[in-house]
Amino acid sequence: MEPLDLNRMPVHLAVIMDGNGRWAQQRMLKRVVGHQRGAETVKMVVEQASQLGIKYLTLFAFSSENWSRPALEVRALMALLKKYIRQETARMMRKNIRYNVIGNRSDLPDDVNETLDSAISQTAGNTGMVLTLALSYGGRQELSAAAARVARDVLAGTLSPDAITTEVFGSYLDTGGLPDPDFLIRTSGEMRISNFLLWQLAYTELYFTETNWPDFTINELHKALADFQSRERRFGKTSDQISKGATY
Ligand code: IPE
Ligand code: IPE
Ligand code: MG
Questions:
Q1: What is the pLDDT of residues 32-58, one digit of tens each?
Q2: pLDDT in tens, 72-99
């Protein structure tokens, strides 16, 4: 396995878990079997990320646009989500992991919301990794909802338009309180963002692999993290400024 510097881990790792359906179809299996296998990869990545000292892990589990899939697949995904949360909450307690959800929760079925509420409140006191599930999440939807909240506060007189800095606007997003992702992994060979964290990914390092999510292994995760550690993040500055720590 790639040697990793535990002092240079991304603080916030985000993942677009893609390729479950193709993984299954390539094996003449139903797409839902791919999702079931994908849930096993989720367990591995959550466990590894928490062990490696990553503070925030955000997983794109279901997009706003995924509601347009066949009803049978949507139902199967919701059932799988509920089963996963129920099964894993005890492990989250053992590993000191805290659940968080971003996305439009009012779209989710009541039973899923109840399961989420219970998992969130049970793990609320945990101080280790924050595991954020993006559910019924879309970046544009999040941004327009945030703009509406900003507008309401301006109308109510509690916010001045002059006070709307990037920090203030960011605090109106679902991710308010989370740092921006340092590293984004997308599996299955697709090289797009698919409406994920549009605002927050401004300076995120991107990593794409051909591997479908159910086949994504510990070794691949370590390879991706080693790649992250080899990069120079410049945030608009020159390479000299970064390597010399100069502030000119
Ligand atoms: C990712 O796998 C899981 C979700 C989007 C819910 P897909 O279901 O998108 O798999 P492909 O892209 O069709 O192979
Ligand atoms: C993105 O994957 C959403 C999730 C991983 C949950 P999709 O499979 O829905 O994305 P597109 O449609 O290929 O862009
Ligand atoms: Mg896909």
A1: 999 999 999 999 999 999 999 999 999
A2: 999 999 999 999 999 999 999 999 999 9
Task: Report if residue 41 sits inside a domain.
Answer: yes
- Give the model confidence (pLDDT) of 173-207 as tens digits: 999 999 999 999 999 999 999 999 999 999 999 99
- The total of structural domains in the chain comes to 1
Ligand nearest to the CA of 192: 2
Q: Is residue 243 part of a domain?
A: no
Distance 93 CA to ligand 3 centre (A): 31
Ligand 2 pocket residue status of 67, Cβ below 6 Å = no
Atom number of ligand 2 nearest to Cα 19: 8
Region 127-137: what's the mean pLDDT?
98
Q: Which domain holds residue 169?
A: 6-230
Q: Which ligand has the shortest distance to the CA of 138?
A: 2
Q: According to the 3-state scheme, what is the secondary structure of the chain?
A: CCCCCHHHCCCEEEEECCCHHHHHHHCCCCHHHHHHHHHHHHHHHHHHHHHCCCCEEEEEEEEHHHHHCCHHHHHHHHHHHHHHHHHHHHHHHHCCCEEEEECCHHHCCHHHHHHHHHHHHHHCCCCCCEEEEEEEECHHHHHHHHHHHHHHHHHHCCCCHHHCCHHHHHHCCCCCCCCCCCEEEECCCCCCCCCCCCCCCCCCEEEECCCCHHHCCHHHHHHHHHHHHCCCCCCCCCHHHHHHCCCC
Q: CATH code at 168? A: 3.40.1180.10
245 inside domain: no
pTM of the complete model: 0.97
